[in-house]
Amino acid sequence: MRNRIRLKSKKDIEKMQGSGRTAAIMLQRIGEAVSPGVSTAELDRICCQTIKELGGESSFLGYQLPNHPPYPATICSSINEVIVHGVPSESQILQSGQIASIDTAIFLNGFHGDNAFTFKVGQVSAEAQKLLDVTRTSLYKAIEQAKPGNRLGDVCHAVQAYAELHGFHIAHNFVGHGIGRSMHEPPQVPNSGVPGTGPRLKPGMVIAIEPMINVGTGDSVTLEDGWTAVTADLSLSAHFEHTVAILSDGPEILTENPDLWDHF
Ligand code: MF3
Ligand code: CO
Fold it and tell me: What is the pTM of this model?
């Protein structure tokens, strides 16, 4: 029954709170280093260092998605038109005006925590700022729907509805996912859906919700490295992600970090 959603016990959730907190600290440390002149390889080193300090293992390093080579780093750094899976490099130097999605995850105490945040590099355009605001809010609109009794389609629809209301498009080739002892577990969590459809949400489900929203087309192209996914029209794309536990009294964001939200 490989495609059954794996429910987590109270003990499992406690462990996942630890993984989530750690993932959020990693993201914050990286975010503090995001500025013009820094290479994305340097951001990856900061992530490696933080993992050494806090314990656990990178969920990304060596990870193999179907039809992809093993992932070579501990973060994905997706700049401007890159939607997801941007691979850090020494030659990629951040410049003022860019938006930089940083995605990172940790495997700690037997469970994964996964999160992403799109940081501003210096000052950004009004359009980029709107894209960040809309993408981030769409994540929270989806999280509000992640409660027992609702269905998965309610969560997925919330992202799409909010993004499209503001004239943007979801990157339809990429989805969120269940998460636990594996980084990617059933169910897939698309950023679009039909309310009232899909599996009913139950206490003990844990999902990573990750809106990827483009200013222009929702279509994407994957570059020759086998990972980097860019918008087909090279328009800007933003990405925010939280690992969210569905508990009897509603959603708990395992990767929440008020410092991160306030400072960037
Ligand atoms: N957060 C992304 C995801 O859930 C990042 C995966 S990167 C990989 O798919 F390298 F680990 F594949
Ligand atoms: Co994820």
Answer: 0.97
